[in-house]
């Protein structure tokens, strides 16, 4: 498996996986909007996207991270916002490889770390993340405000 940074010409391949990721989180399928969203992220350098590419050139997984900053640590901090692997390629360590590539980004940018959020019902993710070095932060409350 090859892990590499996404480029603009990869958008249509990633969009299919991104759409499946969104459907997993109970959103309606919308590949056209997924392509537009990802294209805009790459065009504006709003996020970093890394892909898992099989030996035959098929994109089978991706991870997307957004840059943030920690005021208390006075350093960049990354939000691992999206991680998805095609179901037919799961249980091959691809998610771990994508997380390792994300950790490399943290080191390359001299960031203080990265964090993520997943639903309590995401059993696979909640088992995966501790295995890759993430610690569950039980000392903080997570609040959300929606503008609708």
Compile the SSE list and pairings:
Layout: E1 2-5, H1 11-24, H2 31-43, E2 48-53, E3 59-70, E4 75-85, H3 94-108, E5 114-115, H4 123-131
Parallel strand pairs: 4-5
Antiparallel strand pairs: 1-2, 2-3, 3-4
Helix pairs in contact: 1-2
What would a concise description of this structure say?
The protein has 148 residues and is of the alpha+beta class.
Sum up the structure in keywords.
5-stranded mixed beta sheet, 4 helices, globular
Number of helical elements: 4
What structural class is derived from the secondary structure elements?
alpha+beta
User: Termini distance?
Assistant: 41 Å
What is the beta-strand fraction?
Answer: 15-25%
- Number of distinct beta strands: 5
As for the number of domains, it is: 1
In CATH, the architecture is: 3-Layer(aba) Sandwich
CA radius of gyration is: 15 Å
């Amino acid at each position: 498996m090859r892990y590499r940074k996404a480029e603009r010409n990869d958008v249509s391949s990633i969009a299919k996986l991104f759409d499946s990721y969104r459907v997993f989180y109970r959103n309606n399928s919308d590949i056209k909007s997924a392509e537009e969203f990802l294209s805009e992220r790459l065009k504006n350098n709003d996020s970093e996207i890394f892909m898992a590419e099989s030996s035959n050139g098929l994109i089978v997984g991706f991870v997307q991270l957004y840059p943030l900053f920690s005021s208390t640590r006075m350093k960049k901090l990354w939000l691992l916002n999206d991680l998805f692997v095609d179901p037919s390629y799961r249980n091959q360590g691809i998610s771990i490889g994508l997380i390792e590539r994300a950790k490399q980004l943290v080191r390359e940018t001299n960031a203080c770390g990265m964090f993520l959020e997943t639903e309590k019902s995401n059993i696979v993710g909640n088992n995966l993340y501790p295995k890759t070095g993430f610690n569950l932060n039980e000392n903080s409350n997570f609040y959300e405000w929606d503008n609708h």
